[in-house]
Amino acid sequence: METKSFDFIITGAGPAGLTAAMYAARNGLLTLTIDSSFAGGQATQIYNLENYPGIFPAVNGFDFADTLRKQAESFGAKIIQAHPSSVAKEEDGTFTVTTSKNIYKAPCLLIATGAEHKKAGIKGEDTFKGKGVSYCATCDGPLFKNRHIVVMGGGDSACSEALYLATLTDKVTVIHRRKTFRAQKTLAEKVLSNKNITVKFNTEIQEICGDSKVSSVILKDKNGNTQTLECDAVFIFAGMTAQTELFDFVKKDEGGWIITNEDMQTSVKNLLAAGDVRSKHLRQIVTACSDGAVAAVKAGEIIRSLKNEVYK
After folding, report:
1. Residue 241 in contact with residue 116, Cβ under 8 Å?
2. Beta strands 203-210; 214-221: pairing state
3. Is 19 helix (H, G, I), strand (E, B) or coil?
4. Active-site entry in 139, 170, 253, 263
5. By the 8 A CB rule, do 12 and 35 touch?
6. What phi-psi label fits residue 34: left (phi over 0), alpha (psi between -120 and 50 degrees) or beta?
7. How many other β-carbons are positioned within 10 Å of the β-carbon of residue 161?
């Protein structure tokens, strides 16, 4: 297995990782970005990206992410698709990222692995995953065009995805356990005013039912009343969880999100974190890109300092 050295390694190629790669490479750092999936992260799942400053009219999230990738590569960043099996900090202070083919080494590492959708823990959820249960509307929504779709959740993702699904069918039912949405006011108002969307507040999904595929859900309201609602698909948006499996050696908050300072520095020297994986209040593409830029500038300072020490 070959060991390849870089100035700066980024794990994760979402908006935070790609922005960091662009800034770092443009600043002259030999930069590698590694992601087990294709570049773009969650941004690729957005149907219409309409709240990124300067992007108007709205663009498709995949196209936006692809532009970020091309921009980073144009400055010399190397982006590869590989699955890291381990990340370690060596005795000399450098970091190593091991994949099935190579070991990559750098004195500075950025964690930009993002977050993934949580499961709701509903009876039938695992049984019908891929058979009507989904966590990505833009990925699977077209499969249920003109069918009855149930959306579970009340945050930004649930509302945004419900609006997209409402362009595919005139029958979308949003189920939310609280009495109001947690989403941004603009998104919530769009959902409530959309003629193709019905909202059931103070209601939970008790079970997802069907034979070979989803055919209905059992609902329970705050008063304990139950109802069977026929449907063809259930899209679940129950929040996110940080993807930090490879980074047990860094300090996290109670929710499992990585703690950093304003320079994106973690509790481990020269180990940075940016984007949705970081402990912060707002997780949006614009904040991920901002984190990535800050992290890249900090990485440049770290590398220049280390090289000055070496070449004194």
Report:
1. yes
2. antiparallel
3. helix
4. 139
5. yes
6. beta
7. 27
Given a contact cutoff of 8 angstroms between Cβ atoms, the answer to whether 192 and 205 are in contact is no
Distance, in Å, from the CA atom of 259 to the CA atom of 179, rounded to the nearest integer, reads 32
Residue 183: which of 150, 157, 205 has the closest Cα?
157
pLDDT for 152-203, tens place per residue?
999 988 999 999 999 999 999 999 999 999 999 999 999 999 999 999 999 9
Residue 59 DSSP label: B
Cα radius of gyration (the chain): 21
Share of the chain above pLDDT 70, in %: 99
Is 139 a residue of the active site?
Answer: yes
Token duo for residue 52: 């990124």
Tens-digit pLDDT profile for residues 67-123: 999 999 999 999 999 999 999 999 999 999 999 989 999 999 999 999 988 899 999
On whether the CB atoms of residues 302 and 26 are closer than 8 A, the answer is no
| Alpha carbon distance 79, 234 (integer Å) | 35
Q: What pairs with residue 24 in β-bridges?
A: none
DSSP for residue 308: H
**Residue for token pair 């997802």:** 208
Partners of 265 in the beta sheet? 272
Q: State which amino acid sits at residue 37.
A: S
Alpha helices in 6-48 (DSSP H): 15-26
140 annotated active-site: yes
The active-site residue out of 35, 63, 108, 136 is 136
Q: Six-digit token pair at 141?
A: 């929504």
| Rounded to 5°, angle at Cα 248 from 80 and 69 | 20
Candidates 228, 226, 227; CA nearest to 215 is: 228
